[in-house]
What does this fold into?
Amino acid sequence: MGPISNGWFATCHKRRKRFFDLAGKGRSTFSSGRVPVKPLPKLTIPFGCFLCPGNTRINGETNPDYEHTFVFDNDFAALTEDSPKQVFEDGLLKAEGESGICRVICFSPRHDLTLALMDVDDIVHVVDAWVAQYEELGIHPDISYAQIFENRGAMMGCSNPHPHGQIWASRHLPNEAIKESTTQLAYHDEHGKPLLLAYLEQELALDERILFQNEGFVVLVPYWAVWPFETMVLPKRHIRSMEEMTADERLQLAEALSKLTIRYDNLFKTSFPYSMGFHQRPVDGEPHDEWQMPAHFYPPLLRSATVKKFMVGFELLGSPQRDLTPEQATQKRLDLPETHYLKG
It folds into this structure.
């Protein structure tokens, strides 16, 4: 725990042993420096990919011949159920063992796809897998929070180009979830409605930062966005977590994710890197009616497929600054075609 930031951080030794296939060639690659961003090769089941159907993972288990999604416990989990729960405290020095469950979700048996290249109906299968995992992990007695996320591209540290995401479910709430819980609860106590629903109403009225909307979801650039092309996806009605979505809303979320990621790729005509994830109500047994489920997209690219934003200097030590306004970032993507550049 940091006594100045009042935030916790994790030390995960097993993560250093991960297989890195940054070159997309089915073999381990450890490198530093500039990481190229380019469209994936048209491969179906490359030899050596630990996530493709029928291939053997590094732990010796063979993947099934799955047709849509495939979920398994992470072979290099940062959190495990048998982690020791010791507590250490010596003045300003504090530490506590954290337990949990880490899983990998393969989005497709196709090695050459991304969310941007997948059909909406196939993305629905991904959404269904997210929902099922959230529900399953949510009833685990030692889990208080389930973080669903995807790191897309080598620039974001993705260790395998096969389309996949992760879930880290933990005994305690992570720092960002604590922050969002605190602010949303304070607003809900004062105004009697979810903060992000009130914010969405204001954004829809202004219509200055809206990228896309359908019957169930809105894709927008947050007024407070820090990264050049940061984006948020919000449901139009009060949805605390994924399992509250109807079948129609799952389809609408899949459509929103497709529209957003296609525009990302079209911006610089590249497989656009990002980290994305859903913040949902904690699964600690409390109702958390203050919560509204957002999806956050944090992409690093700034001016081209190889020029990224660096959070350094004053931004690291003081506070972040933007290189373009949220409205400019919105318009740059509104001007793009809705069909993926590789399919146009």
Observations:
- The helical segments are 120-138, 175-191, 195-206, 247-268, 314-317, 326-334.
- The mean pLDDT is 89.
- The chain has one domain: 13-334.
- The two ends are 50 Å apart (CA to CA).
